[in-house]
Task: structure prediction
Amino acid sequence: MGLVPGGGGMKEITMRALERNAGTLAPQTEFLLAAIQTVSAAKTSGSGFEAIELGLMRSTDGVSLSKKYQLVDAKQKVVSLLSSGYAPPMMKPFPCPGLNDNALLLMVAKTMKDAGNISDYDYFIMEQLVGIMTGGGVSKGEMITEQYLLDLEREAFVRLCKEKKTQERITHMLTTGRPLRN
Result:
């Protein structure tokens, strides 16, 4: 609808992509690009296992095999965590993908635009996605926090909300139930 996932969505998608890359020999951009394609294509999962495959969930996240048992499974997980003395993890700084990855990912997006696969406005939205996922204007390897990504996400979300084309996309989706490519 002309927006980036808000409420921590882009931060979490970015963190999942970086986690999936850790310990592999693959370039970080491979995982970031897959995440950007998932978001820009508005892909959704049909199951918990598909969500893991798309990088929307961790492989260690629990999956309920039946909608009927989701609430029961979630409650059991919470009770188990409480009884084991669970404490939320501390936010630790991590190395930022940075400007080098930003340039490479934007080049891929520009190629998609030049090939006619995405519109000029889709490219503008992808610029926002790439900016969040690569840490804005910081250098590769500079230490950033999850809060920093949340701030970038909020700024991009608000920036896009002010755009006429985003407002047109939202209105079109609400009135027709179909996406608008303007």
User: Anything to note?
Assistant: The chain has a mean pLDDT of 90.
